[in-house]
Specification:
single chain, 2 domains, alpha+beta, eight-stranded antiparallel beta barrel, 4 helices
C-alpha cells in the first residue's frame, strides 16, 4: 500500500509540474506582443475621391507624398517632413515645417526682403485601402478641415508628374 501511495504522489507531482511548465510557457508567449507592421503610403500623386478624380490627377492631384525625400506638397504649400510617428496600425502622424502662400499672404512681413515664413504643421495619413488613404492637415497649427479620402492617381498621372519635375 505504501508503494501505491508513493506512486500516486509521484504521478500527481509530475502532472502538476507539467501543468505549471505548460502554463508558464503559454503565459510567456502571450506576453510577447507581435510586431506591428509599419504602414507607409506610396510615394506619388494623390487626389480627392469623386467624380472629378481623373481631372484632379491630370493637374498633379491635391497633394504629393514623397516620404523618401521627406516632403509633402500641395497646391500652394510645400512641407518638409521633420518626424514620422506610427500613430496606430495603418496610420502615421507627420510633423511638418511648411511654407504656405495663402497663410503667408495673411501675415505682414517685417520688411519686404525678408525670407518666407515657415509654419509648424501636422498631418495624419490613415490607410483606407491599397490605393487610398484618409488625410488631414493642420493650417497654421489648427485642424480647420475634416479628414478626406484621397486615392493614388493612375500611372499616367504619376509619369506626368515625374516628367514635370525633370523639366
Amino acid at each position: 500500500m505504501n508503494v501505491k501511495i508513493s506512486s500516486r504522489r509521484g504521478f500527481v507531482l509530475s502532472v502538476f509540474a507539467f501543468a505549471h511548465l505548460v502554463g508558464t510557457s503559454a503565459t510567456s508567449q502571450e506576453s510577447v506582443k507581435p510586431e506591428v507592421e509599419k504602414w507607409r503610403p506610396k510615394d506619388g500623386v494623390y487626389a480627392r475621391s469623386g467624380k472629378d478624380f481623373i481631372e484632379r490627377c491630370g493637374n498633379f492631384g491635391d497633394f504629393v507624398v514623397e516620404l523618401g525625400k521627406k516632403t509633402i506638397t500641395g497646391d500652394e504649400w510645400i512641407c518638409d517632413v521633420i518626424k514620422i510617428m506610427d500613430d496606430r496600425p495603418g496610420a502615421i502622424r507627420l510633423d511638418l515645417n511648411c511654407s504656405d502662400v495663402n497663410l503667408e499672404a495673411q501675415i505682414p512681413k517685417p520688411n519686404p526682403g525678408s525670407e518666407e515664413i515657415r509654419f509648424e504643421e501636422f498631418m495624419t495619413l490613415r490607410k483606407s485601402s491599397d490605393n487610398s488613404l484618409l488625410m488631414r492637415k493642420t493650417e497654421n497649427g489648427k485642424y480647420k478641415w475634416l479628414e478626406f479620402r484621397a486615392e493614388y492617381c493612375p500611372a499616367k498621372a504619376q509619369r506626368a508628374y515625374i516628367e514635370s519635375k525633370r523639366n
